[in-house]
Structure formats: C-alpha cells, structure tokens
Write a structure and sequence with these properties.
Layout (H helix, E strand, L loop, with lengths): L5 H17 L3 H23 L5 H29 L5 H19 L5 H27 L3 H32 L5 H28 L2
Helix pairs in contact: 1-2, 1-3, 2-3, 2-5, 3-4, 3-5, 4-7, 5-6, 6-7
C-alpha cells in the first residue's frame, strides 16, 4: 500500500510521459496516462464501492484520492509546461481539476460516497473520449474511428447529461451536504452538457 501514494504516482506519470517524448509520442503517452487513470478509477469503484454501505463509499473515495489527485496535479503541470497556447478547452480542464481538488479539501466524509459515484460516472465517459482521441492519433482504420466516435457520443451524453442531472438532484436533496462540492460540480455539469452538444455537432458533420 505504501507504493500507492501521490508522490509515487507523480513519478510514474512523469517517467511514462518522458518515454513517450523520447520516441516523439508525448501526446499519445499523455493520452494513455489519462485513459489508464480513468480505467483504474472505475476499477477501484467497482471493486470497493458497490456494497451500498456508507462506510464502503467513504473507503472507496479514500482509495481513489491518491490516483485522481496525482493525475490532476500532473495534468496541471503538463498544461502549464508543454502547451504553447491555453485554449478555452484547456481553461475548462484547468477549472475542472482545481475545482475537484478544492472540493476534496473542503468536503466532509459524509459526502464521499456520492463523490466517488460522480467520479465513476465521469470516468466511464472519459474512457471512450480518450480511446477515440488515441485512435485518431494512432489508427488508420476509419471505420473503427467512426464507430468509437458514435459510442463516445452516446456514452458521454448519457453519463454527463442524464446521470449528471440525477446526481445534481440527489445532491440538492441531501441534508447537511457540504455545498463546496455542489458549487464545484454544477459548473462541471453545465460544461458536460455543452460538450455533449459539441460532440453531437461533430458527429452530425462527420456523417453529413
């Protein structure tokens, strides 16, 4: 367990990313880091968080903390150091990372189960998002790319808009809920809906 720490994960991300740079595939390596992080967070939730007990939910979130914290910190470092221009998309990502790190610092443990579930839902959609992006970079199979784009759009809209709405409603109905997470999550929820519309628009343009 001592190997599973924020510091060690940061070193691993940096090591793996720099191997990618050595072979002139830094972007692809970063995408694999994102994809691996999303898959691992979903795996942690499925392994520890399905018992339905609040203590299970609290422990699940605590288990997820080192991984998502180290990833957010490394991604912020990557964007500040390697990107030549911080576009609107990256500004949204920066807000996303900082907001969720702040909510980690401010929330009480009673809210950990719903926070763990929120991460799980978000990372499911990210798995397909990052896979599609990786295929665009590395695959010449256009049919496979188009299929993943459709799958990405469906999964993303379902997770971010449909399930995201139910999470907002659930959070609003929880008494004594620390609202720092609510205020952090609501803008991210709106961003998810905006990005859902953009994905639909991209898919429409691709097929018409």
């Amino acid at each position: 367990r001592s190997m599973y720490s924020i510091t060690n994960l940061l070193f691993f991300f940096a090591f793996f990313h720099n191997i990618g740079f050595m072979f002139d595939h830094g972007t692809e390596a970063m995408t694999l880091i994102k994809l691996g992080t999303s898959i691992s967070l979903c795996g942690q939730y499925l392994l520890y968080g399905l018992g339905g007990d609040i203590d299970d939910g609290i422990q699940t979130y605590k288990t997820m903390i080192p991984l998502f914290t180290s990833f957010f910190l490394y991604d912020l470092f990557y964007m500040s150091l390697y990107l030549k221009k911080i576009t609107l998309v990256y500004k949204v990502i920066i807000y996303h990372h900082i907001a969720l790190l702040l909510s980690l610092a401010m929330q009480t443990t009673d809210s950990y189960p719903i926070m763990a579930y929120t991460y799980f839902v978000g990372e499911i959609s990210n798995i397909f998002l990052y896979t599609h992006y990786f295929l665009l970079k590395c695959s010449k199979n256009k049919q496979l790319i188009v299929r993943f784009q459709k799958l990405e759009t469906i999964i993303y809209i379902f997770c971010r808009s449909v399930i995201g709405t139910s999470i907002i409603i659930e959070i609003s109905n929880i008494k004594n809920f620390g609202h720092s997470f609510y205020y952090c999550w609501f803008p991210l929820y709106m961003m998810g809906n905006i990005w859902s519309v953009k994905l639909l628009h991209q898919l429409y343009k691709k097929n018409n």
